[in-house]
From TrEMBL:
Pfam families: BPD_transp_1, BPD_transp_1_N. The lineage of its organism: Bacteria, Pseudomonadati, Pseudomonadota, Alphaproteobacteria, Rhodobacterales. The chain crosses the membrane at residues 9-30, 125-149, 161-189, 270-292, 312-338. GO terms for biological process: transmembrane transport. PANTHER family: INNER MEMBRANE ABC TRANSPORTER, OPPB IN A BINDING PROTEIN-DEPENDENT TRANSPORT SYSTEM. It is a multi-pass membrane protein. One of its GO terms (cellular component) is plasma membrane. This is ABC transporter permease. Residues 122-331 form the ABC transmembrane type-1 domain. InterPro entries: BPD_transp_1_N (IPR045621), MetI-like (IPR000515). Keywords: Cell membrane, Membrane, Transmembrane, Transmembrane helix, Transport.
Length: 345
């Protein structure tokens, strides 16, 4: 397993490089000019200097190489500087500055480092989208397990109905619907997510929960619908296997048969669904974040696309690609943990 993991990590390097080239070339074909928002009163020579500072005057391969060096070499040094500053408080490491004076990936829209903006937006996305994913999984797994065990029962039919709603109703409709019902008519929850809110005590924590409930509800509905159907189908496939009948014939308790033998084998395809869905957490939910005014990664990507901010779009999409490759590898490794019969030679 260790050899397989190392081999996959090595093979992921050319894969990610190829993905970065494709993303960069596609973004270069995008219409628009980042200097279009500059006021007309700015002299042409000043605009030209601004274009050179943004790297717009260099050939495409030079721009790509500069971005590659900045992303893989300079940005890790910035992280090391941050980690060093934190460790100085504990007296662990000497004061160093690896990235001091080096040019980082700069957003064309805000003229500030891209990764700084991403790290500012990431907590909001993890609070809302990450929590909705966890809630969706915790609800979906029991529903899928019990629906399969009680196939064609009233509970199974109700779960199927809810899943159909989750698949059919888009977030831009369900989001507006919950705002109208719970915010406008009932006045229970705020319709706008306050990203400046800081949790300091129990009262502020309750306020945070209140503003999270509606966006989490909208996103968790989709997660629950998808994973519960996969869980149900996988459980049904394993409940009819010979080893289940053998376990029952040996006199094992029904709870042990279902929750130990059947559930463990049924989780193998579910691991893929869950693992490949985790990158979407960091990608944010563009529609939901826009509806509830959550300043997360999804809303950041949307504004960067509208502003033709290529460094921001390039960095965010490449981060998503890294996460997809990484969690795909994690899913493959978990297969071997859940099922000892699976071995990678």
């Amino acid at each position: 397993m260790l050899t397989y993991t190392i081999r996959r990590l090595v093979l992921s390097i050319p894969t990610l490089l190829f993905i970065s080239v494709v993303i960069f070339l596609l973004l270069q074909l995008a219409p628009g000019d980042p200097m279009a928002q500059v006021p007309l009163t700015v002299p042409p020579e000043v605009k030209q200097k601004m274009r050179e500072a943004l790297g717009l005057g260099a050939p495409i391969h030079i721009q790509y190489w500069k971005w590659l060096v900045q992303f893989f070499w300079i940005e890790p040094q910035v992280f090391l500087d941050w980690a060093t500053r934190e460790s100085l408080l504990l007296g662990w490491l000497p004061d160093t500055a690896f990235a001091e004076g080096k040019l980082r990936v700069i957003s064309w829209q805000t003229r500030s480092p891209v990764m700084d903006i991403v790290m500012q937006r990431m907590p909001q996305t993890l609070w809302v989208v990450g929590m909705s994913y966890i809630v969706g999984i915790l609800i979906a797994l029991p529903i899928g397990i019990y629906s399969a065990y009680k196939q064609y029962s009233l509970f199974d039919q109700a779960g199927t109905f809810v899943s159909m709603i989750g698949f059919s109703v888009p977030p831009f409709f369900s989001g507006v619907l919950v705002i109208v019902i719970f915010s406008v008519n009932l006045g229970w929850f705020p319709s706008i997510y306050d990203t400046t809110h800081v949790v300091t005590d129990w009262a502020s924590f309750k306020v945070q929960l209140q503003q999270m409930i509606m966006p989490v509800m909208v996103l968790a509905l989709q997660t629950t619908a998808q994973i519960s159907r996969f869980m149900r189908a996988s459980m049904l496939d394993n409940l009819n296997q010979d080893y289940v009948r053998t376990a029952r014939a040996k006199g094992l308790k029904e709870s042990a048969v279902v929750l130990v033998h059947v559930l463990r084998n049924s989780m193998i395809p579910i691991i893929t669904v869950i693992a490949l869905g985790i990158p979407s957490i960091f990608g944010g939910a563009i529609i939901t974040e826009t509806l509830f005014k959550v300043n997360g990664i999804g809303q950041l990507l949307l504004t960067a696309l509208f502003a033709n901010d290529l460094p921001m779009v390039m960095t965010l999409t490449f981060i998503f690609a890294i996460l997809i490759v990484l969690f795909n590898l994690i899913a493959d490794v978990l297969y071997g943990i859940l099922d000892p019969r699976i071995r990678y030679d």
